[in-house]
Amino acid sequence: xxxxLNIAIRAARNAGKVIVRAFEEPNKIEVxxxxxxDLVTNIDKDAEAVIRETILKSYPDHSIxxxxxxxxxxxxxxxxxxxxxxxxxSNFVKGIPHFAVSIALKVKGRLDQAVIYDPIRGELFxxxxxxxxxxxxxxxxxxxxxxxxxxxxxxxxxxxxxxxxEAYTKSFQALFTQTADMRSSGCTALDLAYVAAGRVDAxxxxxxxxxxxxxxxxxVKEAGGLLMDFTGGNNYNESGNxxxxxxxxxxxxVKEIRPHLTDTLLR
Length: 267
Fold this sequence. Notes:
Helix content: 25-40%
Shape: globular
Number of strands: 15
Largest sheet: 8 strands, mixed
Number of helices: 8
Structural class: alpha+beta
Radius of gyration: 18 Å
Strand content: 25-35%
Distance between the termini: 39 Å
């Protein structure tokens, strides 16, 4: 195992202990509203602090960007860690056991290592660039579905982008009529991990954030999946509009939803 992946796993597991302990004692969870339909808890911050401490203990010169605690500029700009301490905070707050720790490492701007850890199920999704993707050390491959019929598509409702509701609803309807089922879990990181594992066939959503998807991007790619924006291009990190799955299925989703999207969503 790559030594930096090993540190990412250690950091994710350390954070997972903090999260599970709080999940079992919900009276200790303090919730704040940081934006429209966007929650943060004291546990998000505590978990991110634990992750930072674990990483910096081994790599004190590295840089870190976290969802809750912002940017730590290390001496080395070549190594940048991107952290989402609890992706699925709303689930966590409501007592729904579906959330994850997401940690990724970029080396010279390229995604190099990734971990998504579900502390409730003890499922550890990992990837090193060029080395495939694993779930608890077992190799992952995306579903080989290449058409919409019979598929299950994961999605994220645009709760933070309700001005896109009409376009989203039309695109959802276009896909729903052709798939076996569609579902929204409330945890983007696990949605991507489940695409990599073949548990769902594809994922699409409006306005995702980089810290939610960055680890999942590498895991999906290394499991044989393709990521694209709503035009079929590579602008998903800037736009936040993301589709991923088996290459032909991702392209089929683009073809189906594109006529229903506004110009803003096609940038």
